[in-house]
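Lecture notes, part 5. Sequence design as translation. It can be helpful to think of inverse folding as translation between two languages: the language of shapes and the language of residues. The source text, in structure tokens, appears below.
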């Protein structure tokens, strides 16, 4: 089972790779070192992270400080130091964070709507949806378990999908009207 921290690392690694490479002016070796140092520091200082804050921004701040530390220790390494360029980089990466968080909230809302609609399905429809989509069973196995013909199982599954589609759409429209 993944820990919350490992999920955060996995989620933010592509962003930090790009940020580190930009910060270190394309020096892949230095960028990899920077990224590893930033993640290690984030792991050690996780207790300092404020719940609800932007993890990506916090991680980029750590990376910037680590980059400055690397530069001070070895001034031969190149890194972006212009405050205006750094500010522009942060604004750019923040816009990606905002887009990702709005996508995530959309997914959470869609999942909530779907789960609500699933709970409203009659037992016969809910059981076939659960077996096929949650348990990943093939339709033939579902037919044997529910003692249905393949045509009947396919018809139930098709009806369940249509009922769910209509319910989710209706719920979304109602929520939009209430906002």
């Amino acid at each position: 089972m993944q820990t919350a921290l490992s999920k955060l690392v996995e989620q933010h690694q592509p962003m930090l790779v790009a940020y580190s490479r930009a910060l270190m002016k394309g020096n892949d070796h230095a960028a990899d070192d920077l990224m590893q140092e930033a993640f290690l520091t984030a792991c050690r200082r996780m207790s300092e992270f404020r719940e609800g804050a932007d993890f990506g921004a916090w991680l980029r701040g750590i990376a910037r400080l680590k980059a400055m530390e690397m530069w001070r220790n070895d001034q031969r390494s190149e890194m972006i130091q212009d405050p205006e360029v750094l500010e522009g980089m942060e604004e750019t990466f923040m816009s990606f964070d905002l887009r990702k968080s709005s996508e995530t909230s959309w997914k959470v809302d869609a999942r909530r709507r779907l789960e609500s609609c699933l709970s409203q399905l009659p037992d016969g429809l809910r059981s076939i949806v659960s077996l096929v989509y949650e348990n990943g069973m093939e339709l033939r196995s579902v037919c044997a378990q529910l003692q249905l013909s393949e045509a009947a199982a396919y018809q139930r599954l098709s009806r369940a999908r249509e009922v769910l589609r209509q319910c989710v759409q209706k719920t979304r429209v109602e929520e939009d009207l209430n906002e």
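The translated text above is only one of many valid answers, since several sequences can fold into similar shapes. Helices lie at 4-23, 28-44, 55-73, 83-120, 123-134, 139-146, 150-178.
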